[in-house]
Design a protein that fits this description.
The protein is mainly beta. It has a single domain (about 5-355), classed as Methylamine Dehydrogenase, Chain H, CATH 2.130.10. About 5% of the residues lie in helices and about 50% in strands. Strands 3-2-1-30 form a 4-stranded antiparallel beta sheet. A 4-stranded antiparallel beta sheet has the order 4-5-6-7, with helices on one face. It has a 4-stranded antiparallel beta sheet with strand order 8-9-10-11, with no helix packed on it. The two termini are about 35 Å apart.
Amino acid sequence: MVTNQTRRSLLKAALFGAAYPLAGCVTTSQKTQQPTLIGCSIVGRDRFQAVVADENGLPLKSIALPERGHGVASCSKHQHAVAFGRRPGTFFQVFDYVTGESIKLRAADHHRHYYGHGVFSHDGQWLFATEGERNTSRGIIGVYDVIAGYEKVTEFTGFGLGPHEVILMPDDSLAIGVGGVHTNGREPLNLDSMSPSLSYLDKNGELIEQVGLPDHKLSIRHLAHDGSKTVLCGQQYRGEPDEYPSLLAMHTLGGELLPLQAEPEQWARFNHYIASIAATDEWILATSPRGNCYGIWSKHTRKLVEQASLPDASGVVVQGDVFKVSSGAGGVVSQRRPGDKHRIRSGVQWDNHWSVIS
């Protein structure tokens, strides 16, 4: 339930959360750059922002968030971005990513919370958000009418407990990483009976296909697609602490989930958790803030070809054929292929995910 204190925090953010430049980080030359990347950041104790950056990850504008953010959805048709509260999230914040102006700060519905991710439809008409029912964790995709001021118009459900990330496929269907975990706040309650899945819904919310992994302790959470029909999913392992199964898999409709390959000691470095994923025609890159590293796999062989250290490795997106990787320690890595990387300092304490404006 959204508490009075939460509502006061949301109201305060709405009143005082106008965009402002990041002091000490934005130069005159940077202000002329185009907004390209958006992510949430941690500023200090109980201070959080969404940050708009240029193509190099250098900050241009920011907007205050009432609580810690997680994923960001963006829509170039309207110049809108939406930052979602970290699970169990109580809000999403809509803003203009060019001007930085706040458009709408929406509290979660009664007995609902956000799981931290959402995506716009291709035509910009709808926003789809992963939500849960409090006390049950029943999975919901909230459907919001963008033109009507982000009014919720319907809910899709019937695919499982604890959906985390939702992405839009090229054919307008939705792919959902369903964690399968019933939680009280962030405390898991059903690890012995959890039932994760990769689920697909059509544009009307009907279940198209649902697939799982043999090990039900692999909670499917984060997703990406390769621009075509292949979906990549990253897992959080909820099993024995000294076991290190594959944490990544790839899938196309009608097929099986195919685990990506690495040695157990390499999987151990990821510390049982994959955060962000991105893919090109040749390569797949996945980050682990808990493991302070990221890995690059060959899409064709499914084998790990590079594992690199990066403190609090967080978001990753693809621009053209170049991966851009963010760090909670402020670094940004640009990498086209294994062994070819360029690092800069952004001055931003990036959180788990990035969104690229397309």
